Amino acid sequence: KMDDDDDIPQLSSHTLAALQEFYLEQQQREGMKNSQGFNQYSIGSIEEDWQLSQFWYSDETASCLANEAVVAAGKGGRIACVSAPSVYQKLKEQDGKDFSVCILEYDRRFSVYGEEFIFYDYNHPLNLPENLLPHSFDIVIADPPYLSEECLQKTAETIKYLTKGKILLCTGAIMEEQAAKHLGVKMCKFIPKHSRNLANEFRCYVNYASGLD
User: Domains, the chain, ranges and CATH?
Assistant: First the structure.
């Protein structure tokens, strides 16, 4: 695994996609899917794109949120990650565990994940594929890309459409009132961290008894 990501020059998303394809083919040929070398689901296999307002969670935070989702979803549960790819990638690392996961994401680089990838633009919150049935996910984890009420309100429509009930929202501390208003969620004690420090204080919000307190 590449640990010193800082030394790696930033590639364009096009180059990155091509590189990723090459690694995947190479990896399939050598049958070393999970043993060692390149892990297709690790953060770092896809770099943050700041123009899309993407900020990955720290490894520890992504693991913590992924584990919380698995527990909340229950055995055989379905988990939706809305604009939260670093949590999705952590869930994929637990491959073979008893749950399924979808990623709804604007960044088409994540289409490398195949059928689990659903292109998602919060400006069209219910523009979703027909096979994505209403209330078909045990928990929805969402991290709206922008700290605006408009973005939260539209993302909230998607969340409410997808979830059977449980919601785990990650957004700025300044969004507390709006989060309560649009989704009925309350702030947890757990403080999520990002791999690069963000200027805005970031928090998690839930509407069920979670392990994040």
Answer: 50-206 (3.40.50.150)
